[in-house]
Amino acid sequence: MPEGQNTVVPAGLVAIGRNEGERLRKCLTSVAGLAGSVVYVDSGSTDGSVDMARALGVEVVELDMTISFTAARARNEGFRRLRAIAPGLRYVQFVDGDCEVVPGWLEKAARFLDEHTGVAVVCGRCRERFPDRSVYNMLCDIEWNTPVGEAKACGGNAMMRADALEQAGGYRDGLIAGEEPELCVRLRAAGWKIWRLGEEMVLHDAAITRFGQWWKRARRSGYAYAEGAYLHGAPPERHRIRESRRIWAWGLGVPALALVLFFWLGAPGLALLLIYPAQVARLALRGTLSARENWWRALFLVLGKFPEAAGQLNFLYNRLAGKTARLIEYK
């Protein structure tokens, strides 16, 4: 093929976002002339994102914001529009509006699905664009570096077999987080495989620069773990059971026991809390990254159990009170 000529892959693309500005422009232009059809789903932007997307020739879906928003609902509506305008497309690449698709990814992912008919979802390396801007961005980059090969789940950026997604009923609209792993549970139960390639997939701009943002993101994760365990925690899947138990033990159990010991023994009872720095040291010394990355990662893995526990309690309260979950936004 002549140099510089683009190959259009048999995949459409669904991007979702709100007020992503220049990041959205980079996202959409990164796939220009490559994806068969592109749909952008906007959730109430006020920064001109809708007009910009239309100016780029992208099909736009503006969500009805009187209905509770979730990323799952946005992806479902985008997928439905994609199927309506391009029913023959075999694959769909989902991407967040703050991500830029790496050159060559769409072709590699589509080729992999062509060659592996038992795989429903394929994802690659999601890399943080500015890992040195904050420790939180760095932690995101580490978190996204998942093992290569057959996987249990994918993240928000992934290419999926359109027929498999449709047969599974799409994402679960009501989930405020963790919708991708939940979908993957259902896909695997139907006999499909999820695969992580070693190829670069997207550059992501997490833009987490404050502790409060990190705390909300961790609380949302705790909520997602609790809801995932509620939906699919029964054998054989036992989805998110291990994660939830660890959260309850470290985020709630140890502090509660330390409080009991304090009332019983006085100040010496608080010595139990030394288990936290010991756990940080244990995780850091077992790490395989640089010393700086190992220690930061260990610290926030332990510290994260507290906002995650808050998220678990939030889910439990909503279930008992019959309340609808509200999106936990961190930026």
Annotate the secondary structure layout.
Blueprint: E1 11-17, H1 22-29, E2 38-42, H2 49-55, E3 59-62, H3 71-85, E4 91-96, E5 99-101, H4 105-115, E6 119-128, H5 135-143, E7 149-151, E8 158-161, H6 162-167, H7 179-189, E9 193-204, H8 211-232, H9 241-265, H10 275-286, H11 291-303, H12 305-321
Parallel strand pairs: 1-2, 1-4, 2-3, 6-9
Antiparallel strand pairs: 4-8, 5-9, 6-8, 7-9
Q: How would you describe this protein?
A:
This protein is an alpha/beta fold and 331 residues long. Helices cover 47% and strands 16% of the residues. It is built from twelve helices and nine strands. Strands 1, 2, 3, 4, 5, 6, 7, 8 and 9 form a nine-stranded mixed beta sheet that branches. It is globular. Mean pLDDT is 94; it is low at 1-5.
**Overall 3D shape:** globular
CATH 4th-level superfamily of the largest domain? Spore Coat Polysaccharide Biosynthesis Protein SpsA, Chain A
CATH fold type of the largest domain? Spore Coat Polysaccharide Biosynthesis Protein SpsA, Chain A
Structural class: alpha/beta
Number of domains: 2
CATH domain class of the largest domain: Alpha Beta
Number of strands: 9
Element order: H for helix, E for strand: EHEHEHEEHEHEEHHEHHHHH
CATH architecture level-2 label of the largest domain: Alpha-Beta Complex
Amount of helix: 40-55%
Could you write a compact summary of the structure shown?
This protein has 331 residues and is of the alpha/beta class. The chain has twelve helices and nine strands.
